[in-house]
Design a protein that fits this description.
244 residues, alpha+beta, oxygen-dependent coproporphyrinogen oxidase, 7 helices, binds biliverdine IX alpha
Length: 244
């Protein structure tokens, strides 16, 4: 269901950037589950380039039971622009959820004016894809913007309407990256490093997908996938803070 979204992102990336593969820890690139009635496969891709330090995307295909496309793009530490976050889920025709956002590293007014306000006119165009749904796992005021697309559309809308919104948001993100000023100050860079690391920690701890991964691939694989690939700069909660 979301393969065209993956292909579009991939084409964009390869045409705009000089990508290198970024290694995925052994055993985490792909997996197949035969638990339960339905076969489920998961596959991930990871790249980097001068402007983007980590580009990852994952596809889960469990036939009609589950289709998921998830991606995060982390800019180089020399840019303070938001991360591009994509989470597209479908559990049967009736339960579809799409989330797309420029995920802000900071919540200061000046930061939001600079990097989130430019999304406003796009978001206004696609207001129907921003349904003001309540977040049960995450805090909407941390690492999310007020112009995110967040909706439970039907399959038709995903194809006929959301796909265009997705392309528009991605173009806007490339534009933002192109215009971004390169940061050279050590102190400022350290602030960005910390913010991106905090994002990983926050996301790993809240990720609503860990139950889904565990049910398909087992608890041990899921924890590794979460802490060694998806959010590799996060430290599992059981690890004492002194060694983090
Ligand atoms: C929700 N994301 C979810 C849910 C699942 C995933 C299972 C719960 C759906 C439900 O309501 O039943 C799935 N999350 C995944 C998968 C991965 C993952 C498969 O990280 C990894 C492969 N989530 C993101 C990113 C964004 C995001 C980058 O990973 C940003 C756009 C958003 N996902 C997001 C939000 C919700 C969600 C806002 C709703 C959560 C809530 O209600 O608090």
């Amino acid at each position: 269901m979301y393969k065209p979204f993956l292909e579009y992102l991939e084409k964009e990336l390869f045409s705009k950037f000089d990508l290198r593969s970024r290694p995925i820890p052994a055993g985490l690139e792909a997996n197949v589950s035969n638990r339960g009635k339905n076969k489920a496969t998961i596959q991930s891709w990871c790249y980097e380039c001068a402007e983007l330090r980590k580009i990852r995307y994952t596809y889960i295909d469990a036939g009609a039971t589950a289709q998921v496309f998830n991606s995060v793009i982390y800019p180089s530490y020399h840019y303070d622009i938001p991360l591009l976050g994509i989470d597209l889920l479908s559990f049967g025709e009736k339960k579809i959820l799409i989330v797309l956002d420029f995920q802000p590293l900071f919540q200061e007014e000046s930061y939001l004016t600079k990097y989130i306000e430019p999304m406003r006119w796009k978001r206004e165009e696609y207001n129907d894809l921003a349904q003001n749904l309540e977040m049960r796992f995450y805090d909407a005021n941390q690492y999310f913007s007020k112009y995110l697309l967040f909706a439970r559309p039907d399959a038709e809308t995903v194809k006929n309407r959301f796909f265009q919104a997705y392309k528009d948001y991605i173009s806007l993100y490339w534009e933002m990256l192109e215009k971004a000023k390169i940061i050279q100050t050590k102190g400022e860079i350290q602030k960005i490093v910390k913010a991106q690391k905090d994002y990983d920690q926050y996301s790993a701890e809240r990720d609503p997908a860990s139950g889904l991964f565990s049910s398909y691939f087992g608890h041990e694989w899921s924890e590794k996938f979460l802490y060694e690939f998806l959010f590799e700069d996060a430290v599992p909660l059981g690890v004492p803070t002194s060694t983090r």
